[in-house]
Write a structure and sequence with these properties.
It is built from two helices and no strands. By secondary structure, it is mainly α. 89% of the residues lie in helices and 0% in strands.
């Protein structure tokens, strides 16, 4: 899980730079490509949010289990 969190942080940083570089252009054919790029980035960010949600549930569940065991 920790490796996954590292990957998420690198992806967010990388694609923030990617957005600032490639989403400025809106002329001609680049405008159509821009729309496709935005759609792809939205799918990526949705996948990242889904992963983070699952990771949180995983950690919450394991923390609760550890506390229950510790208190017994």
């Amino acid at each position: 899980m920790v490796e996954g969190m590292e990957l998420v942080s690198r992806l967010i940083t990388r694609y923030a730079i990617f957005e600032s570089l490639y989403l400025k252009t809106t002329v001609g054919a680049a405008a159509a490509a821009k729309g496709q790029l935005i759609e792809a980035l939205l799918k990526l960010y949705a996948a990242i949010l889904s992963y983070l949600s699952k990771a949180r549930r995983y950690y919450d569940r394991n923390t609760a289990s550890a506390l229950t065991w510790f208190l017994l």
